[in-house]
Design a protein that fits this description.
Elements lengths: L17 H21 L7 H8 L3 H7 L3 H24 L6 H18 L7 H7 L7 H26 L9 H22 L3 H16 L1
Helix pairs in contact: 1-2, 1-6, 4-5, 4-7, 5-7, 5-9, 7-8, 8-9
Length: 212
């Protein structure tokens, strides 16, 4: 009977389990989202993201071919996160449609306060620096804004059907106007470290709807 040999254990780090790899990639994405909502794409280096996570540079290129690929993933991830947030508010049929829109505004204000107005909108941040970004980002960003506009417009249409706003309101144009103005208000809120711009714009927007 042959004696069983004990496997020789190699020196160095033990092999990563699949779940560990997923955790590392997720940590990189989360750190990237934090950095880009604070500083933008051009001002955020890969080393900064790695420092936040505490992993070597080689790990980054194991998951992402380039910084551009990383940025594309962050746009997709943020778009999914924000679409879920909008649906949570806009799809809440226990509230009247305009109250759903106001709930989003209040949630956004609370979120910016919670982070001391250091974080803004990743999509808005990238849009402002588009001249310095890969051209491939342009279509991605436009698609995200279009999705937000459609969701907002559907809620306005529901408000119209329930008599909350006049039938003369062009819901699609109003939705586009809202996001243009809202992104500007978010930028101003970061600059002033105050939610005054958010409140001022929102109140003006909703007052204008009822006067249309």
């Amino acid at each position: 009977m042959e004696a069983q040999q004990t496997p020789v254990r190699r020196r160095g780090r033990p092999p990563k389990r699949p779940e560990q790899s997923l955790e590392t990639r997720e940590l990189l994405v989360r750190a990237g989202l934090e950095a880009l909502t604070e500083k933008g794409f051009s001002s955020t280096g890969i080393d900064e993201v790695l420092k936040r996570v505490g992993v070597p540079k080689g790990s980054f290129y194991h998951y992402f071919d380039s910084k551009e690929a990383f940025g594309a993933e962050l746009i997709e991830r943020y778009a999914r996160y924000f679409a879920h947030k909008l649906e949570r508010h806009f799809g809440d049929t226990s509230r009247r449609p305009l109250d759903r829109l106001w709930a989003f505004v209040e949630d956004a204000r609370a979120g910016m306060k919670r982070h001391d107005f250091r974080r803004g909108c990743l999509i808005g941040n990238l849009g402002q620096e588009m001249a310095a970004l890969p051209e491939g980002f342009r279509a991605r960003l436009n698609a995200v804004f279009h999705d937000w506009e459609q969701r907002f417009a559907r809620c306005l249409e529901a408000a119209q059907q329930q008599g909350e706003i006049p039938t003369s309101v062009d819901c699609e144009q109003a939705a586009v106007f809202f996001w243009i103005g809202w992104e500007g208000a978010v930028l101003r809120a970061k600059l002033e470290r105050s939610d005054k711009a958010l409140e001022l714009f929102a109140r003006g927007f909703f007052a204008g709807l009822k006067k249309a």
